[in-house]
Amino acid sequence: MTATVSSVSSGRRPRGVGRSWAGPAFVAGYVLLLIAFGVLPIGYAIYFAFTDAGGTFTGFSNFVTTAQDFRFVDALGHVALYLLFWLLSLVVFVVGLALLLHRVSVGRVSQALRFLYYIPGALAGAASVLVWLFMLDPTVSPVSSLLEDLGFDTFGQVIAPDNLPVLFTVIAFWTGAGGWIVVMYGALNNIPSDVLEAARIDGAGAWQTAWHVQIPMLRKWIVYMVILAFAGGAQLFVEPQLLSLASVGVAGRDYSLNQLTYAFAFQMNNINGAAAVSMELLVVSVSVAGVFVARSRFFDAD
Amino acid sequence: MTVNKPLAGEKAVPSKRRAVLLAACAATLAVTVSACSGAASDKTTTKDGFAQAAQTDGAVTVWVDATRLPAAKQYQELHPEVKLDIVSYDGDANGSNYLQTKVQLFNRTGKGWPDVVFSSQNNEASWAVDAGFAAPLDKGLIPADTLGQFAKGANDVCTVNGTVYCLRNDLSQAVLWYNAPLMKQFGYTVPKTWEEYQQLGEKVAAEHPGYLVGDAGDSFTPEIYLWASKCEANHITGPKAVTANTSGENCTKMAKLMDGLIKNKSMSITGVFSTDFAKNEADKVLLMPGPAWYGGAVFKDTLKTPDKTIGAAPIPQWQGDTAPSTGNVGGGTWLLSQHSTHLKAATDFLKWVTTDNAYQGEKAPGFPAYAPAAENWLKAQAASGYFAGDLGALKDASSQVWPGWGSGQFSQEAIWAATVKPGLTQGQTIESLLPAWQDSIVKHAESFGYKVSK
């Protein structure tokens, strides 16, 4: 092995100078942007979270003040419920649909399905939510008869507070799941055909192949999806914010933690409190990612 | 192993890399810091009651909503010599807080403030003064005799600690709008008291089901009905003090009246701007208590009610009261920025847009707050021939706004929309939701630092 690598390496030696700079050059741009728009703002937010408006160190008082706000616990509950719905639906349906897509991978049908799954993702976040505002209003919706069959005659009934976690999940799934289905489909294609062939020879049916062979081999991709979806879901903002505007406040301007952060920053002029809530979201997202990465041995080489 | 062996000459690279990285960090930091500390350090002069920035000749930036866009354009046509940069925004409609959000950001970056801005919200002065955005207008910028000609109480919402920080665009006193031909056809008379209004609602439900005597589906519903009933839900008693008591009789009797009419379906709960209302109920409005701007914005533009159909009568009063009390649903305000570097031109625009007959007296869609323009506006409305009868009720109502309801920093509309509206949609009564409404007002007011009495 060493010999092979050596030979390859020595074969590329003439381009050695380029090689020594290529990696860092590729990474440099990313690192620079990461520092400018990731690390520095986080540092700035940490500074805000532990100081008051005058820049004096205040310890955890911003965290305590915001946690005691009458909207905080409700917003936390809303986000938790939404994450539960969103992550479950994502894992079950994305994996299910990707397996189905892989199963019917016969030429045009597969291509058409992949295209269909991907289309909603092509709409920018806010635009796709606006599409849903029309879909959910029985007066103008193209599926108004379906809404009426479900007992909804007015937009107000559709966006009742109890329905919101499901509505946000449906909107988010429609917007974001298509891309993940395509990713999972790609991952399924990477499973060597002789493994599937062996399973078939051993008498495994479609279900057993999926459960015992394909899904375990998708594990890392699923973990990757869950980590990103959790981080994105915890920052729920666009959906409730637009729905709130469209419903003239009925859907709540402080439904999610991020909306509460926005309210602290721009309505109550409490940037420090807003930074404290942002820090909490960051810590939770990073911790959850850490747990998933550790337990799934995400970075282990196969 | 060979792979991992560093190439000749690579030893020096790490320090170079470190230098590049450090330089990049420093550059990024410099950009960030300079962006954050870009506050204007220009010389300021204290004049007209505030520290004014050094004045320049640049364009006056004016922020307006879609409805006020023609006003700014008209000013530009009449004053071609003025450099005007007209920016269209949502006018903070439905309490979007766009202006406040932007001002917080401009305050941080030290630039970007509009010179003059229109807002459809009455409570802008309550935060804009704290934020150091609104300029005092009665300390030299706007002459006292001009300010004195605004309708009585019109600029109360603009007054903070005795100083006027904005000018009211229009009054939004509520009246009872009615469909004159339909009332005649059904043989009804316009009710003068809330008791008569309730009886008529019951009659309409029995004799002409489907027709409406009002709508309770908007976020400004409490300002139409509960304010008119003198419900003490939002009595701003000081700069940071409010009384919120929804259990008083003035609140409960109006809540009961509305609940009865909602139950018999003579009062809608969908909201006049909702797609449902425009589609299903536009031609079913027999009566509709609502603000002055309903005439143009709701009946003429949204519901497309034909000419000579809609008339305005005084808002009903409770039996035993000597005169009607009315609520006030919005009515825009114009603010001038303290940071303006074109104060003369900006002030001229502000004065023109709030007082000049060319816009306020003839073209404005709402009842002008500036009394001489209001006189002219009423004549223009009569001459337009849209309304059935005269709009004298609007003039009378302009001095009948009950003063026990104020404009605090927290949005009453947002609180009602989030607390009461969902319950109404699910079939709960307003009366049963009054305690939750009060609770929510108290919590929101306290979160803004208000001392709340109940």
Notes on the protein architecture:
Chain B: It comes from Kitasatospora atroaurantiaca. Chain B: This is Carbohydrate ABC transporter substrate-binding protein (CUT1 family). Chain B: Keywords: Signal. The complex is a heterodimer of chains A (302) and B (454). Chain A is mostly helical and 302 residues long. Chain A has a domain at 69-269: MetI-like fold (Orthogonal Bundle). Chain A is built from 15 helices and no strands. Chain A has helices at 2-11, 16-49, 61-67, 72-103, 107-122, 125-135, 144-149, 155-158, 164-189, 193-201, 206-217, 219-234, 238-246, 257-266, 271-296. The longest helix of chain A is centred in the N-terminal third of the chain and has 34 residues, at 16-49. The radius of gyration of chain A is 24 Å and the shape is globular. Chain A starts with a helix and ends in a 6-residue tail after the last helix. Chain B has 454 residues and is an alpha/beta fold. Chain B has two domains: 2-171 and 330-379, Periplasmic binding protein-like II (D-Maltodextrin-Binding Protein, domain 2); 174-328 and 393-453, Periplasmic binding protein-like II (D-Maltodextrin-Binding Protein, domain 2). Chain B has helices spanning 13-36, 69-78, 98-109, 124-128, 144-147, 180-186, 194-207, 221-224, 249-263, 275-281, 294-302, 343-355, 357-361, 371-384, 392-397, 412-419, 421-425, 430-447; strands at 44-47, 50-53, 60-64, 84-88, 116-119, 159-160, 163-164, 166-168, 170-171, 174-179, 214-215, 235-238, 241-243, 267-268, 287-291, 310-313, 333-336, 367-368, 451-453. A five-stranded mixed sheet of chain B has the order 4-3-5-17-8. A three-stranded antiparallel sheet of chain B has the order 15-10-16. In chain B, helix 7 packs parallel to helix 9 (249-263). The longest helix of chain B has 24 residues, at 13-36. Chain B is globular and about 70 Å long. The chains are: A mainly alpha (302), B alpha/beta (454). At the A-B interface, helix 1, helix 2 and helix 8 of A face helix 1, helix 3, helix 10, helix 16 and helix 17 of B.
